[in-house]
Design a protein that fits this description.
There is one protein chain. The protein contains 3 helices and 3 strands; from the N terminus they run βαααββ. The protein is of the alpha+beta class and 126 residues long. The chain has a single domain, classed as Ribosomal Protein L22, Chain A (Alpha-Beta Complex), CATH 3.90.470. The protein has a 3-stranded antiparallel β-sheet with strand order 1-3-2, with helices on one face. Helix 2 runs antiparallel to helix 3. It starts with 13 loop residues before the first strand and ends in a 5-residue tail after the last strand. One of its GO terms (biological process) is translation. Pfam families: Ribosomal_L22.
């Protein structure tokens, strides 16, 4: 009586993690996402650990979640994982006003972003 299971959207050798509503502009988040694209996960984790960007902590958390999903849910080997994709999307923008001189108001925008990380297992060439 239950519904049929949805087909898997990713390939068998991939796993993903999505982090939504991150309080940073998508442009700044994309700078950190570019840092890890295409790298092996251990190298990407090391780069995020020593990055001076504030948002690198949240990106590292998302990458660790993708690695855990690959290991626990899809039985992939952690040593062979590579960051296949890391892309950023816009979420909502909170609009606030800040008092300025002579009775005027300045608009302050507080953007949010979404981050998706897909890790892929590659076969080691021996």
């Amino acid at each position: 009586m239950s519904q049929e299971k949805n087909p898997r959207a990713l390939k068998e050798n991939e796993a993903k993690a999505v982090m939504r509503m991150i309080r940073v502009s998508p442009q700044k988040l994309n700078l950190v996402a570019q840092l890890i694209r295409g790298k092996k996960v251990d190298r990407a984790l090391a780069d995020l650990t020593f990055s001076e960007k504030r948002i690198a902590v949240d990106v590292k958390k998302a990458l660790e979640s993708a690695i855990a999903n690959a290991e626990n849910n899809h039985d992939l080997d952690v040593d062979d994982l590579v960051v296949a994709e890391a892309y950023v999307g816009k979420a909502l923008v909170m609009k606030r006003f800040h008092a300025r001189a002579r009775g005027r108001a300045g608009r302050v925008e507080k953007p949010f972003a979404n981050l998706t990380i897909i890790v892929r297992e590659i076969q080691a060439t021996a």
